[in-house]
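Predicting holo structure, flavin-adenine dinucleotide bound.
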Amino acid sequence: MYRAGAARQKLHDYVENLKEHDANWISALNRENKEYSTLRNRADRLAAIAKLHATNAALDCANRAVQIFGSYGYQKTSRVARHFLDSRAIVIYEGANEVLKLKIASLEMGDKYDAY
Ligand SMILES: Cc1cc2nc3c(=O)[nH]c(=O)nc-3n(C[C@H](O)[C@H](O)[C@H](O)COP(=O)(O)OP(=O)(O)OC[C@H]3O[C@@H](n4cnc5c(N)ncnc54)[C@H](O)[C@@H]3O)c2cc1C
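Done. Tokens:
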């Protein structure tokens, strides 16, 4: 996750630097621009991996917490039940995890990989 953050920061710095030195900067942000393309692909790939890993870990933790708290954990008004419900949602939104797996496979294996 730290690597994903660092990759995103590098991409951000590249774009900000371009903005300062090139009035036509927006047209330089395309696939033909190898430096931008490499930074963008790396940031996208690591963000997808981080989201997949972190949300699966959160769901696993919340699920175990419900078990540890026993019947109290199952009560809808308990805090662990709330965490379980919320962590169930995060594997669906901001990129459903199954779809992220396909995205990661495409980014790892290149444009020719027919994931969808
Ligand atoms: C609590 C919550 C808050 C939300 N907030 C927002 C918001 O603020 N703004 C917003 O725009 N949207 C929001 N959403 C919507 C969310 O982004 C979508 O629910 C999410 O993108 C999944 O899309 P979908 O519901 O259409 O499911 P579908 O795309 O129909 O997917 C259903 C299931 O099938 C799986 N699936 C889909 N395609 C494939 C495939 N090719 N291979 C394998 N499995 C596949 C998915 O992983 C998922 O498990 C929210 C959703 C929830 C649950």
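The chain has one domain: 2-109.
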